[in-house]
Specification:
single chain, mainly beta, Porin, two-stranded antiparallel ribbon, elongated
């Protein structure tokens, strides 16, 4: 029975490989920046991570859906000219990201390939944290102002060497993660979209 199971599994994996179907895991680093429409507020890059799985179907032309957990965020700094109302906030956002990429292998060797890919991605925010780094003056943003579902476009280059993968991508936000925030009588129009650089390595099981 065990021998039959192993033979069946081998035949199944061989069939998937011949059909151009690949499954694997991936992990990586990202650096993102939330844009801002307020001249007096600056936005800083923040480092994060990603961890997930991917599925690729096709040989030269392929579709690649992924599911991954991503940790991103930003830092906003408001410098008050009078130096009495300056604030500094750090935002951390954890989300489940689901990109669906279409691609083509511009080099399609047996052991090595080089590919380009493009496609939409949706992010479902699972946790969010806003921390005031200025203990005297709190900032205007609270976690409730962070949008829970966000859309973006991913584009990039990738390479496979034997069972290992490498991907370099840029992700441009399509909707505003933080829109308008009211703090007392002050209205802040952030209009923040998320822009991300992603680097990941992966391993293909077949």
């Amino acid at each position: 029975m065990r021998r039959f199971t192993l033979v069946t599994l081998f035949l199944l994996i061989s069939g998937l490989v011949c059909a151009g179907i690949t499954f694997g895991i991936k992990a990586g680093y990202n650096a993102n920046k939330l844009s801002v429409n307020i001249d007096s507020v600056s936005s800083e890059f923040k480092s994060g991570m990603q961890l997930g799985v991917f599925f690729r179907a096709g040989k030269r032309f392929f579709v690649q859906p992924e599911v991954e957990y991503s940790l991103q965020g930003a830092e906003y700094i408001f410098n008050d000219p009078s130096n009495t109302g300056s604030w500094h906030q750090r935002i951390t956002i954890g989300s489940i990201d689901i990109p669906v990429l279409l691609g083509v292998k511009i080099i399609n060797g047996e052991k090595f390939n080089l590919r380009v890919n493009l496609g939409p991605a949706v992010s479902f925010v699972t946790n969010r944290q806003v921390k005031d780094l200025n203990e005297v003056v709190p900032g205007p943003i609270t976690s409730s102002e962070i949008n829970s579902v966000n859309w973006s476009i991913q584009a990039g280059l990738g390479a496979d060497l034997w069972m290992f993968t490498l991907d370099l991508r840029y992700q441009g936000g399509l909707n505003e993660i933080i829109k308008d925030v009211k703090q007392g009588t002050q209205n802040w129009t952030f209009g923040s979209k998320n822009n991300v650089f992603l680097v990941s390595v992966g391993f293909k099981f077949f």
